[in-house]
Amino acid sequence: MFLGEFQHLIDGKGRVILPAKFREELADGLVITKGLEDCLFVYTPAEWNKLEDKIREMPLTNQNARAFTRNFFSGAAKGAPDKQGRVSLPQNLRDYAGLNKDVVVIGVGARAEIWDKEKWAKYSAETESSYSEIAEQLAGLGI
Amino acid sequence: MFLGEFQHLIDGKGRVILPAKFREELADGLVITKGLEDCLFVYTPAEWNKLEDKIREMPLTNQNARAFTRNFFSGAAKGAPDKQGRVSLPQNLRDYAGLNKDVVVIGVGARAEIWDKEKWAKYSAETESSYSEIAEQLAGLGI
DNA sequence: ATGCTGAAATTCCCCCAAAAACATCTGTCT
DNA sequence: AGACAGATGTTTTTGGGGGAATTTCAGCAT
Q1: Which CATH architecture has domain A5-141?
Q2: pLDDT tens, A52-90?
Q3: A74 to chain B: nearest residue by CA?
Q4: What is the distance between the alpha carbons of residues A52 and A38, in angstroms, rounded to a whole number?
Q5: Nearest by CB to B106, which of A34, A65, A74?
Q6: Which of A46, B27, B50, B104 has the most beta carbons within 10 angstroms of its beta carbon?
Q7: Quick check: B8 CB within 7 A of strand C?
């Protein structure tokens, strides 16, 4: 279970330091993928496997499905934090999320997310103001 | 399981260097064939056999099936990486995929794909929008 | 409130492995 | 026999991964 918001820097080699509170859960591996709203998703191996199974069920004869599968797998990276708690982010993923130096790592329950600092600031400012409004719309989803 | 996106060059002899992360899986052989959307598919022997069985089950009376089968098998080449992790691409396959010098090798789960660099850039830019659409639908399924 | 202690974060440096260019060999065709 | 094309091997350079050390931060006790 990932919770909280943490500020970090990306070093010259494209590596980011994981928040200390996330390390234990990710110690035996993690998978990073292109997420929604221009951020990166970080999954535990267990969560990733669930996802992978779903994707594999998609029909290969469907053109949209092929496009999605290509994006999904080519935009994924298995890894593990080193002894200092760092993970390296492949170039194509950094490009996708627009990560430069300042990033924000947030915990979102089952997964963690990595955001460019400014993008996150903008996004959270926008959604915070309409927080209760959005919540109301979600009421129908049984929360 | 093939994941990620890698930039490589084709040398003067028509060989491409496999990404280091793909080598182990392909060490004991691979099959390259004409893929969909003007790229090359690269399969492990095991995956290839599965595919071969599936295609053999296709009805011989269907004209599209016949055409597809012809393309798929006639364009296939068995091979193995050399000690430096290189595989040579037959001329007809290079022509088919329009490969010159800069290529991109991507992992797509069960298979890998080889793309001309520019074609891939174009394709992935075009399909990125459908990526978030489909991803959102998947997210709705409780992932 | 202030100093102390430990852990976490950032920077720096080194080494190894992968990539790309270069070179050699073998067989075939003329 | 020579030349060319194909394949295989070798060397050098670059980039990435890993580790260590210093600095910063936070928590704690005095």
Answers
A1: 3-Layer(aba) Sandwich (3.40)
A2: 988 888 887 888 889 999 999 999 999 999 989 999 999
A3: B4
A4: 21
A5: A74
A6: B104
A7: yes
- Average pLDDT (B60-87) is 89
- Mean pLDDT, chain B, whole residue set: 89
Domain B5-116 has CATH 3.40.1550.20: yes
- A69 interaction partners in chain B (CB closer than 8 Å): 108-109
Nearest to A78 by CA among A27, A33, A131: A33
Distance from CA of B143 to the nearest CA of A (A): 7
Bridge partners (DSSP) of residue B78 are B31
pLDDT digits (tens, 9 = 90+) for A8-50: 999 888 999 999 989 988 988 999 999 989 999 999 999 999 9
* Residue-by-residue DSSP string for B78-142: EE---TTSEEEPPHHHHHHHT--SEEEEEEEBTEEEEEEHHHHHHHHHHHHHHHHHHHHHHHHTT
What is the model's pTM?
Answer: 0.90
Statement: residue B142 has pLDDT above 70: no
Looking at the predicted structure, is the pLDDT value of residue B132 above 80? yes
Nearest-neighbour CA in chain A from B74: distance (Å)? 20
Cβ contact B14:B77 at 8 Å: no
CA angle in degrees (0–180, nearest 5) for B2-B78-A66: 40
Tally of CB atoms within 10 A around B62:
11
Q: Which residues of A touch B8 (CB under 8 A)?
A: none
